[in-house]
Design a protein that fits this description.
alpha/beta, Rossmann fold, 5-stranded parallel β-sheet, 15 helices, 13 strands, binds nicotinamide-adenine-dinucleotide
Length: about 475
């Protein structure tokens, strides 16, 4: 992480802090102040953590008319933002330039500057640790930083995905260490982020927002805040309920993806195409919702969040069998995809996977993004090479493999450019990500075996006999 000098932005923002401090002894007046400022969209909104979630949120708050401060511990992100560049692949530079115009968005590198904020929204990571237990160190670290700047009348909202009880049992006690009480001196709420990076149909402002708080004033303030930013706000009775909403959504996806991956495997053995089956099933106008199989789970949410509940459930001596089972089925998907490719190579080309030249198409965990967190592609690449294949990859969004926790040995490898000469060298291609803008027909024309785990070759007109669904 770079270090940059941020003394100026602190001084600058202090000078612009709201008039007249309000003491904890006057909760009613501070309440009126924050509510009025939220209603007039004058409240200064600070977003802590400017990643896939925080930066689009900061942009949406700016567009809603709020003055916005953006804070991140990664100083290189702040430097980029100050130059009008986006540090997040799914947010274009133009968005940063547009929200920075007229000083509406201020990137800050000094946490002291957060004193000037009326609202602080926390969007920091919530990964699993080495033992697959929740790693709340980012939330705790943010709380420890905020307690030094917390002042009466502020609204703090946690957005990071986490298990029920985090806001109340982990964040609140840290914030209260400075002597201010949640619900009395400052307001505290939880609102789960439902951002789907790269989704052109739904963005931060058009996705309804659930907000939960453990007291009425905090909930009302959070409703006012998000009501100004997003199309619809859905209040729930507590921070725990709001935390559980997010986990329920992601567990629902995990279990259904696990189910459809299992069905793919079973139906494939019966020579039935799962994609055709899903198309047929989804013609039912009620009671069925399509989920699609793939090479395995990826991204920051689905492979991780459900296990936050599994961890918390241990406290209640309750197993989470659906979650564990879906996790197992999905974890087996990358290996099954590699097995299917090996079998196709042997059956169709009389070649062994060992020694075969394989083109792996797509590193990102989903289409049209540069995000490869938890992507199954790296596991697949690793497995292919462990079984003796010579693997090259291509991803239009990821030209070089960055450093990852799971596969540091792959960092720095460069992708191959696609042209008739390079394509002609491969015995097989394995499509892991269905990015747009790739000439899949050219791939099928040039490579004898094309294993497609995403059904992206459905539109290929010629040479379909070379394609196998895996
Ligand atoms: N990415 C998604 O699609 C998505 C969707 C819904 C919810 N979420 C949840 O939102 C949260 C954030 O996810 P993300 O994808 O934006 O992560 P991210 O890694 O893209 O961004 C997090 C940012 O927080 C910064 N950060 C870390 N510690 C900090 C601190 N103490 N103070 C300030 N900044 C700090 C990091 O430098 C990084 O820029 C997670 O809990 C995630 O589960 C993510």
């Amino acid at each position: 992480m770079d270090r940059i000098d941020s003394a100026t932005d602190t001084a600058d923002l202090r000078a612009r802090a709201p008039d007249g401090p309000v003491t904890p002894a006057e909760p009613r007046s501070f309440g009126a102040d924050i509510f009025a400022r939220l209603e007039r969209r004058e409240a200064r909104v600070a977003v802590v953590g400017l990643g896939y979630v925080g930066l689009p949120l900061a942009a949406a708050a700016c567009r809603a008319g709020f003055p916005v401060l953006g804070f991140d511990v990664d100083a290189s992100k702040i430097s980029k933002l100050r130059l009008g560049q986006s540090p997040v692949g799914t947010v274009p530079n133009e968005t940063v330039v547009a929200i920075s115009a007229g000083g509406r968005f201020t990137p800050i590198a000094d946490p002291e500057a957060l004193k000037a904020a009326d609202v602080v929204i926390i969007c920091v990571p919530t990964p699993l640790d080495r033992h697959r237990n929740p790693d709340l160190s980012y939330i705790e670290g943010t709380g420890q930083m905020l307690v030094k700047v917390l002042r009466p009348g502020q609204l703090v909202v946690l957005e990071s995905t986490t298990y029920p009880g985090t806001t109340d049992e982990v964040l609140r006690p840290i914030l209260e260490r400075g002597g201010l009480k949640a619900g009395e001196d400052f307001l505290l709420a939880y609102s789960p982020e439902r951002e789907d990076p790269g989704n052109k149909d739904f963005g931060t402002s058009s996705i309804p927002r659930v907000v939960g708080a453990d007291d009425d004033r905090s909930r009302r303030a959070a409703e006012l805040l998000y009501g100004a930013i997003v199309a619809k706000v859905v209040p729930v009775s507590s921070t725990r309920a709001a935390e559980a909403v997010k986990l329920t959504e992601n567990i629902f996806r995990l279990v259904n993806i696990g189910l459809v991956n299992e069905l793919k495997h079973i139906l494939g053995q019966m020579d039935i195409d799962i994609w055709e089956v899903i198309e047929g099933a989804k013609s039912k106008p009620f009671g069925f919702m399509p989920f699609y199989p793939g090479p395995g789970l990826g991204g920051h949410c689905i492979p991780i969040d459900p296990f936050y509940l599994t961890w918390k459930a241990r406290e209640f001596d309750t197993p989470t069998r659906f979650i564990e089972l879906a996790g197992e089925v999905n974890a087996a998907a990358p290996r099954r995809v590699v097995d299917a490719l090996a079998e196709a190579l042997s059956r169709r080309s009389r070649k062994s996977l060992a020694g075969a030249k394989v083109l792996l198409m797509g590193l990102a965990y989903k289409k049209n993004v540069d995000d490869m967190r938890e992507s199954p592609s790296l596991t697949i690449l690793h497995t292919l090479e462990a079984r003796g294949a010579q693997v090259e990859f291509h991803d239009p969004h990821i030209p070089i493999i960055p450093m990852t926790r799971e596969h540091p040995e792959l960092a720095g490898r460069e992708g191959v450019a696609l042209n008739p000469e390079t394509l002609a060298a491969f015995d097989a291609a394995l499509i892991c990500t269905d990015h747009d803008g790739v000439d899949y027909q050219a791939l099928v024309d040039a490579i004898p075996v094309v294993a497609d785990s995403r059904n992206v070759t459905k539109a290929v007109a010629h040479g379909r006999e070379r394609v196998i669904r895996v």
